[in-house]
Design a protein that fits this description.
The protein is α/β, with parallel strands linked by helices and about 260 residues long. The chain folds into two domains: about 140 residues, 3-Layer(aba) Sandwich (D-Maltodextrin-Binding Protein, domain 2), CATH 3.40.190; about 90 residues, D-Maltodextrin-Binding Protein, domain 2, CATH 3.40.190.10. The chain contains eleven helices and eleven strands. Helix 2 packs across helix 9.
Length: about 260
């Protein structure tokens, strides 16, 4: 009798046509850990940061364990596509190009880019970057923006780096003239680098979100959890924890949004 019940349950599961990922007890997440205040390693080797709090809370609401892997930023895209991980966090911007091969939750942070440099570089604004080297994190929206505007701004080179740390250090040491990256991450990092400063905000209208494999079966549930967190104030609590009470959140942090769709 017991065996018959098990067979019926298995048949019902297969009839649903739902992949095993939808029933997984563990939400496997990739993160680029050298990305404060979004993701970083603490002294005990664990993960912490704004998006770490967000994904752990999502796991709690879904009744799932969350397992975070430390991956390079570029590796996140291949990992979600290949289903090696269910989701990726790392201040990942929703773009039309990415929506062609990935799925995204609603945005939860309104972000801009910025130009930064060493205070002794002689670079005072974007106008001073003509004929200069712009440092960017490879595969980031900073790289996308810099390459799209290279001719207009007159950059002699857009130089990609595999890590945010290498990008900033090369700019600090004069091997690159200015760095173009997420303004929040730059400002956070420069608290420990007084010789570096943000020169100019680059308005983009970007929104950060959780990236998942295309049409991942858990996308709707993860997105619903984000909606609940915005409505009950949890997202705002995490924002204040990591960005302070004096920093005003954008509407994406507090207002529920639709799932993003590729334009056109």
């Amino acid at each position: 009798m017991k065996m018959g019940i098990l067979k019926l349950a298995a048949a019902a599961f297969l009839a649903l046509g739902v992949s095993g990922a939808a029933w997984a007890e563990t939400l496997n997440v990739g993160a680029y850990a050298a990305n404060p205040p979004w993701e970083m390693k603490n002294t005990s080797g664990g993960f912490e940061g704004f998006e770490v709090d967000v994904i752990n809370e999502i796991g709690k609401r879904l009744g799932m364990e969350v397992a975070i892997q430390d991956l390079g930023f570029q590796a996140l895209f291949a990992a979600t596509s290949s289903k090696r991980i269910d989701a990726a966090i790392s201040s990942i911007t929703i773009t039309d190009e990415r929506l062609g091969s990935q799925s995204f939750t609603q945005g939860y942070y309104d972000a801009d880019l910025a130009l930064a440099s060493n205070k002794e570089s002689g670079i005072k604004s974007m106008a001073d970057m003509k004929g200069k080297v712009a440092a960017v994190l490879s595969s980031s929206t900073g790289e996308i923006w810099a390459k799209a505007n290279q001719e207009k701004m007159g950059f002699s080179e857009v130089r990609g780096y595999n890590t945010q740390q290498d990008m900033v250090l090369d700019t600090q040491n004069g091997r690159a003239d200015g760095a173009i990256s997420d303004i929040t991450g730059l400002e956070f990092g420069f608290k420990q680098m007084p010789q570096m400063h943000v020169l100019e905000r680059i308005a983009t209208g970007d929104k950060y979100a959780i990236m998942m494999g295309k049409d991942h079966p858990l996308l709707g549930k993860v997105n619903d959890a984000i909606t609940e967190m915005k409505k009950d104030g949890t997202m705002l609590t995490f924002y204040k924890k990591w960005f302070g009470d004096t920093s005003e959140p954008g509407p994406s942090t507090t207002s529920p949004l639709d799932l993003p769709a590729k334009a056109g």
